[in-house]
Amino acid sequence: MSKHASLPGFRDFHPEEMARRTQIMAAWREVARRYGFEEYDGPPLESLELYIEKSGPEIVNQLFNFTDKGGRDVALRPEMTPTLVRMLGTRIKGLPRPVRWFSTPQLFRYEKQQRGRLREHFQLNMDIIGEESIVADADLLSAALEVLRVLGLTASDVVARVSDRRLLHAALVELGVSEENLAVAYNVIDKVERDPREVCLERLGAIGLDRERAEKALGLTDMTLEQFAAAHPGNEVIAKVAEDLRVYFAALGSLGFGDWVTFDMKIVRGLAYYTGVVFEIFDRRGELRAICGGGRYDKLFSALAGVDVPALGFGFGDVVLGELLKDRGLAATASRALDAMVIAIDDASREAALETVAALRGAGLAVIYPYRAGGVGKAMKAASASGARDTIMIGPDETARGVMKVKRMADGSEREMSVEEYLGELK
Amino acid sequence: MSKHASLPGFRDFHPEEMARRTQIMAAWREVARRYGFEEYDGPPLESLELYIEKSGPEIVNQLFNFTDKGGRDVALRPEMTPTLVRMLGTRIKGLPRPVRWFSTPQLFRYEKQQRGRLREHFQLNMDIIGEESIVADADLLSAALEVLRVLGLTASDVVARVSDRRLLHAALVELGVSEENLAVAYNVIDKVERDPREVCLERLGAIGLDRERAEKALGLTDMTLEQFAAAHPGNEVIAKVAEDLRVYFAALGSLGFGDWVTFDMKIVRGLAYYTGVVFEIFDRRGELRAICGGGRYDKLFSALAGVDVPALGFGFGDVVLGELLKDRGLAATASRALDAMVIAIDDASREAALETVAALRGAGLAVIYPYRAGGVGKAMKAASASGARDTIMIGPDETARGVMKVKRMADGSEREMSVEEYLGELK
Asked: Are A102 and A126 spatial neighbours (Cβ–Cβ below 8 Å)?
């Protein structure tokens, strides 16, 4: 391994890449703030047990795990939810509900190496804990969509595909799928877009669905919500969930995201713990993996922390989003916006120049100056290369009169003004 | 280990603690921006070799290191400089100098467990690469001090103690300390405040300084810069460095930090690689460990990346700073500032209420609403508990007239106004 390389699957963020990460982080934080979420974070290293408990021992194959110098089995966090449950499990009883928490952790998985497959990424996690109402599900999805809107994307660029685990469960049970075979049936539906139809039918056959019922099961996946409800007359669970989802879509409409969402039974979400609404956001062109996914997981706090409290949340990674922003020409480029470079035109003006620098920075401006005394020509070149908006020159003449010479680099115009006048103009 | 605990030495950041972390991060970023630094980051996991190469094999005892599933020896980063050198080493030749880069990594050390000793912390790293001038050293220290000033601290709270490795080196050589014994002598000076005088003299004796010269060496540590220069007449190195330091302190004075800095030969800095100015910032009461430390390391890029380029930088951790802010009553408390809670007073007003929520959030306000339809009284209680500045009520009457009822929670006053009027007032 070259000593000048990062580990495979890990990114270096030079200022160019950092500007794009900062753009995404800022959008995440801004939306979380507008939606009234409070930020939390946990350690990037946790007890290995925490992840095994939630996901089973097979998760270990995908982890960066090791035994630390104190003999503890530990792992770099692959996801945030176990930490959230650990932190909130002991506190939730004393907090006014619902709790709205968000975090932007860096997560780690030892993925098999493939082109473009990373072993770390940043992920916005937003979770609402202690709320059963379907309107909370709508508010949560609208937050994810708001992130995309804040970044300049529209309903023409992305779509949220929404289903509900309870619908799929009820319909499969009605078709005769037994509880122990549900996981297989979910998996078939999850892959219905990728696998050949014949393979799907075969797999459903293997869990006891005859051809007719297997066709029926696959047929569900293309239905609208109303078609789905109409196809199950007399099923009270489905009637109730359908009514819930009508409230859900109406709320999203009122929140301004009617054009951004669609009912889609093909959305299952791999994780077994979802209990209600599930969603994934995709680019409309279908070129990228899911941008964001989440849903309701009402049983997880009970299973892991022994407190029976409903919850819902999503994970929203930086990688696919970053690709989408680049593709659409929306990715940030500049990483530094300098207001001014201050140049002393002789040694005697050095002190006045530094005092000016301090005054401008103290007022919040981004200001640099040449560290070495030297030719003004060279300094002017450096100012131009730095991308500073203004070059400010200070000489004995200016100092005596309490002014500075301000050159606006964009048009080359020069003016004499005091620090106060300069700051006043920028307000 | 309880499954409800984080690993020893690792912090959970509940919203209360996160607010304090955010306060510090914001100050770090704001000052870095004002000083024209660009942000970068590297992976928290790096090749173990990277750290051994810089610090020697004994560093491994302090690391979270392991062998990953691909057989690579890796470590959680204990410091940022090796990553900086790795990332910049290959690029520095093509970049306009000086390069000003900053980062705010979380760092990890497997410290022996003691009360309050953490195994992770966040650290602002600011580095200037490709600049020899001592004025760059002054600008760098002023950035560290500016962070403290931005957070509300003053020259009465903190002091930067500054020395220069070249002075100590020249003085010790003049006293007859050989090159191979310099590290021991540095170490004695570094600990002169903690170790008994007799121990210091003994240790200097062990490396060949007789009593008189040992006393002389210790005597250096209390001198002012001018005393130090006067005590070494005819030593050209010392004369030159003293002149450099006069420029340095003058620049800090012009930058507004004259009262914040002092010359102090007792500052050595443990790390062997410093080559010029070194500094540490302390609370004036002397109650805490160093807040920030750094200096010039002109040979490190050459040693690690094979490019001969001067550099200087500092590390500024969040833990001691956090303690200081708490002690001085300057730590942030609120983690969420809600502008409004919007309440539909009946089911028919639900849609209008959600549209209002969307309009206010779209304008950048932080807004929540009750997810469940229910009594207005209960919703008002929740609004009060949420800490929202305003409660906004929307009923059929208000909707018909295109207004909303705004209750300012601080004084209980109620007014009717449109969304536009409300937003206009807040501007």
From this structure: yes
d(CA A225, CA A212): 22
Whole-number Cα distances in Å, A287 to A64, A144, A282, A291, A325: 30, 19, 9, 11, 13
Please give the class, per CATH, of domain A340-426.
Answer: alpha beta
Question: Per-residue pLDDT tens for B36-48?
Answer: 999 999 999 999 9
Residue-wise burial string across B206-238, b where 16 or more C-beta atoms lie within 10 A, e elsewhere: ebebeeebbebbbebbebebeebbeebeebeeb
What CATH homologous superfamily does B15-327 map to?
A: Bira Bifunctional Protein; Domain 2 (3.30.930.10)
Residue of A1, A2, A4 for testing the chain B interface, max B β-carbons within 10 Å: A4
| Residue among B227, B9, B277 at smallest CA distance from B117 | B9
What residues does CATH 3.40.50.800 cover in chain A?
340-426
Mean predicted confidence (pLDDT) in A318-342: 93
Residue B334 pLDDT > 80: no
Specify the 3-state DSSP secondary structure of A385: helix
CATH 3.30.930.10 domain span(s) along chain A: 15-327
Residue A221 vs residues A215, A233, A239, B112: alpha-carbon distances, Å: 10, 17, 17, 57
Q: Which of A63, A102, A354 to mutate to test the interface with B (most CBs of B within 10 A)?
A: A354
CB within 8 Å: B13 and A41: yes
Reported as a single tens digit per residue, the pLDDT across B77-92 is: 999 999 999 999 989 9
